[in-house]
Each structure stands twice: as C-alpha cells, then as structure tokens.
C-alpha cells in the first residue's frame, strides 16, 4: 500500500484546510481509494421520498456517477461521525435530521468504506453546500438502479437494499 497526498493545485475541498486523511491509498494492484483512514457515506432513507443520492462532479473519483454523500475519515474519527460530518458538508443535512439504523463495512485490509444507513426523522431539503456535487436528489428505492451509480455503491446496493426491508 502507498499513501499519495493530493498534488499541489489538485481540486479538492477548496474551502478550509486539508486534513491528514485527505489522501489516496493505492493498492499494490494500482487501484486507488480516497481516504488515508478509510471513508464513509450516509445512506439517508426517507419513507416518503426514498434515498438521498449525490451526483458527483466530473473531477471527482468516478465523476458523473451517483452515490452517497460521504468521503474521507479524519484521523481517529468514527465512521458514523465521519459519514454524518461529510453528509452535512456535502448535502447540508441538519443536525438531528437522521437516526442511524445500521452500518455496513467493506474492509479491504488496506482501506475500508462504511455505509451508514439512517432513517430521516426530521424531513429536510438537501442543499449543495460544497463543490463536490452536481445535484442532490431523493430517489425512490426502486429507481436507484436506473441511475449510473458509482461502482462501489452499485456493488453494495443489492445487499443494502435487501437490508432496508
């Protein structure tokens, strides 16, 4: 495994300081994963509106696909805290608007991604609050697969979908 920090001038969260976790983890096979300390995303479930999805900007990893608000964990940060922080940064999710139901972890030994599944308990309108989103939309559960999904989310969606019931 190799850790590669962002290159000078690389577009990445232009507002605010970089965190030590904002770096690529590169596997021996050459595959890249964002987040030196792993990453996490929030799968917000609204009983009436569906799943909150983020349309990723073109310059991001797998840009142009749909996935979950989320990103790199900070050093020492729990996956739940990181997913909630990232979702607030990227989608303006208000404090207390969701209640965590369960987590699902993809552990690759050199890197991990945690999906934090949470029920919306206070309805909210998502707001694009950083430059990482083209759009944020509530998508009915049965229509999620109709979008061009981020490959990692696409791979995990069938098992996550089954657990939602």
From TrEMBL:
PROSITE patterns: NUDIX, NUDIX_BOX
Source species, domain of life: Bacteria
Chain intervals with Basic and acidic residues compositional bias: 10-20
Region Disordered: start-end pairs: 1-20
Domain Nudix hydrolase: 34-162
Keywords from the UniProt entry: Hydrolase
Pfam families: NUDIX (PF00293)
Signal peptide segment: none
Coiled-coil stretches noted in the UniProt entry, renumbered to this chain: none
Entries under PANTHER family matching the protein: NUDIX HYDROLASE 23 (PTHR43222), NUDIX HYDROLASE 23, CHLOROPLASTIC (PTHR43222:SF2)
Protein name per Swiss-Prot or TrEMBL: Mutator protein MutT3 (MutT/nudix family)
Source organism: Microbacterium murale
């Amino acid at each position: 495994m190799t850790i590669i920090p962002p290159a000078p001038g690389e577009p990445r969260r232009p507002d605010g300081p970089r965190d030590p976790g904002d770096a690529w983890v590169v596997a021996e096979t050459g595959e890249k994963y964002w987040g030196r300390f792993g990453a996490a995303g929030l799968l917000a479930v609204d009983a009436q509106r569906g799943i909150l999805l983020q349309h990723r900007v073109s310059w991001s990893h797998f840009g142009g696909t749909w996935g979950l608000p989320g990103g790199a964990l900070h050093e020492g940060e729990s996956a739940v805290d990181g997913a909630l922080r990232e979702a607030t940064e990227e989608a303006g999710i208000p404090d207390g608007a969701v209640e965590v139901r369960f987590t699902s972890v993809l552990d690759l030994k050199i890197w991990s991604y945690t999906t934090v599944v949470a029920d919306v308990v206070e309805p909210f309108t998502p707001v694009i609050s950083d430059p990482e989103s083209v759009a944020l939309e509530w998508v009915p559960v049965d229509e999620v697969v109709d979008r061009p999904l981020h490959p990692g989310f696409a791979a995990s969606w069938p098992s996550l979908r089954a657990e939602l019931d």
